[in-house]
Amino acid sequence: MAEGARVIGIVGGTGDFGQGLAERLRRVGEEVVLGSRTPRDEFVSNAEAIQQSDIVFLSVPPDGVEFTCRNLADELAGRIVVSVASPVVFVGGRPAAQPGEISLAEAAQQAAPRCRVVAGFHTVSAKALARVDDPLDEDVILCSDDGAAKEEIAALAEKVVEGRAVDAGPLMVARWLEPVTAVILNVNRNYRTQSGVRITGIQT
Ligand SMILES: NC(=O)c1ccc[n+]([C@@H]2O[C@H](COP(=O)([O-])OP(=O)(O)OC[C@H]3O[C@@H](n4cnc5c(N)ncnc54)[C@H](OP(=O)(O)O)[C@@H]3O)[C@@H](O)[C@H]2O)c1
User: Fold this and answer.
1) Least buried of 43, 62, 94, 200, by fewest C-beta within 10 Å?
2) C-alpha torsion sign, points 65, 6, 161, 154
3) What is the DSSP letter of 173?
4) Which of 60, 82, 185 to mutate to test the pocket of ligand 1 (most atoms within 8 A of CB)?
5) Looking at residue 3, what is its pLDDT?
6) Beta carbon of 125 within 6 Å of any ligand 1 atom
7) What is the Cα–Cα distance from 186 to 195, expressed in whole angstroms?
8) Would 151 be classed as within a structural domain?
9) Is 36 in the pocket of ligand 1 (CB under 6 A)?
10) Residues with Cβ within 8 Å of residue 196, at least 6 apart in sequence
11) If you ran DSSP here, which 8-state letter would residue 167 be given?
């Protein structure tokens, strides 16, 4: 696939995360198609967004991940699917995580077995993404069972953030990566900011 010729689709592209990511991707020269369950204006259906894309960001809430992937499994087949969902819940107003037995990314892979799931971007805040003129001073942590897909998303991630794409290993690692969002949200709350992560001690 030629660099620059690809199209990136965002399922759930009406949400804050998808909106911010789309603008960031467009600013680094990527072509982006936004999907929605209710197509209107610039938003096509999620199925159409996937059909037009080489890479698909699955940017729907955690409770919509499995159903969306099962519903769109045929369209997703063969595509790289980036799962950004985190099992965040609010307990007494405070962000917490309620992970299942397997990660949301693994559930996505099981529901759409012919796609190539990469989990990542869980530590990137939608609010930080939305401040499109400010550089994202952070790393992106990725995991996947598909090495080539992971490499392609790593290269894409490094166009969006100032830091590095860090390979955390196989898709199973998403079980421990996804809940980290709840840690970030608590840090943000305590410091009234939008924080991100930097991994130290590795050479790339
Ligand atoms: N917000 C953050 O800072 C942040 C950070 C890291 C990761 N994430 C992850 O990024 C994902 C998107 O976050 P967000 O804040 O943009 O979410 P959101 O606004 O709650 O949802 C995004 C879009 O998903 C669609 N949607 C809602 N419920 C759905 C369902 N049950 N099934 C399918 N689609 C549904 C809606 O679009 P339509 O109604 O137009 O279809 C909605 O606009 C989440 O999984 C979140 O865990 C978020």
Assistant:
1) 200
2) positive
3) G
4) 60
5) 52
6) yes
7) 10
8) yes
9) yes
10) 123, 124, 125, 128, 136, 137, 138, 139, 161, 163, 184
11) E
Whether 10 and 34 have beta carbons less than 8 Å apart is answered as: yes
**Is the Cβ atom of 122 under 6 angstroms away from ligand 1?**
yes
- Please indicate, yes or no, if residue 148 is contained in any of the structural domains: yes
Q: What is the pLDDT of residue 203?
A: 85
The CATH number given to whatever domain includes residue 124 is 3.40.50.720
pLDDT along the chain (204 residues), means of 10: 76 98 98 98 98 98 98 98 98 96 98 98 97 97 98 98 98 98 97 97 86
Residue nearest to atom 2 of ligand 1 (CA): 126
Residue 149: which of 92, 99, 86, 76 has the closest Cα?
Answer: 76
In the chain, the number of structural domains is: 1
Distance (angstroms) between ligand 1 centre and the Cα of 7 equals: 20
What digits encode the pLDDT tens for the residues 125-141?
999 999 999 999 999 99
For residue 197, being part of any structural domain is answered with no
Distance 26 CA to ligand 1 centre (A): 20
Give residue 1's pLDDT: 41
Residue 61 Cα to ligand 1 middle (Å): 4
The residue whose CA is least distant from atom 11 of ligand 1 is 59
Q: Is the CB–ligand 1 distance for residue 42 below 6 Å?
A: no
pLDDT tens figures, 141-181: 999 999 999 999 999 999 999 999 999 999 999 999 999 99
By residue range, what is the domain housing residue 27? 7-191
In a domain, 143, yes or no: yes
